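User: Design a sequence. Structure:
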């Protein structure tokens, strides 16, 4: 008899008790985030996509030292440095891309390998590389997840001139690094070239 009553309880009461839990949760506050349509703000120090920064005149901060590539534990960064060349040369890219002696001619970050740890940011001596709050890095093919220098460079803001050009806000590269910016007269061709 005990077995029969136990079978009836399991058969009738247990499913009702289970549905009772579901029924109670229908009236609770919803905690689900509507992610693609309503995005939550990230923390200020969130480690997202990388960005190569510029000086206020448009020159790149990257000096091609490759310290970020050496610091990367996932071997996700590839940098090829080149010398800045003042004046026209035949067959070579000429002009100044950064205030220093060198600049990063090729800069790639492979987001298939990157673990977004931020060690590259700590290694950068000029604060050329920082991390943004952009976290949507998914794509439908592998090739698009290897970001080139053009994908990583910060956009030109008003008043900036597209490199290559001479240093416009300081006499030496030390002025740039110390933040001692002095206004210099721009050549007319440089003003037109940036627009």
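Assistant: Done.
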């Amino acid at each position: 008899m005990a077995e029969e009553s136990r079978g009836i309880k399991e058969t009738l009461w247990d499913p009702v008790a289970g549905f009772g839990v579901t029924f109670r949760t229908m009236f609770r506050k919803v905690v689900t985030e509507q992610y693609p349509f309503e995005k939550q703000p990230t923390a200020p120090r969130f480690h997202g996509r990388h960005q190569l920064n510029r000086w206020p005149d448009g020159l790149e901060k990257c000096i091609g030292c490759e310290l970020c590539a050496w610091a990367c534990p996932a071997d996700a960064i590839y940098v090829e440095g080149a010398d800045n060349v003042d004046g026209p040369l035949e067959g070579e890219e000429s002009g100044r891309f950064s205030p220093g002696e060198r600049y990063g001619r090729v800069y790639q970050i492979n987001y298939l390998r990157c673990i977004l740890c931020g060690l590259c940011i700590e290694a950068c001596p000029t604060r050329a590389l920082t991390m943004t709050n952009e976290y949507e890095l998914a794509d439908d093919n592998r090739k698009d997840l290897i970001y080139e220098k053009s994908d990583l460079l910060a956009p030109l803001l008003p008043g900036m001139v597209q490199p290559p050009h001479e240093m416009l806000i300081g006499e030496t590269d030390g002025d740039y690094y110390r933040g001692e910016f002095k206004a210099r007269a721009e050549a007319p061709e440089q003003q037109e070239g940036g627009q």
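Residues 50-184 form a domain with the Alpha-Beta Plaits fold (CATH 3.30.70.3270). The first strand starts at residue 50 and ends at 52.
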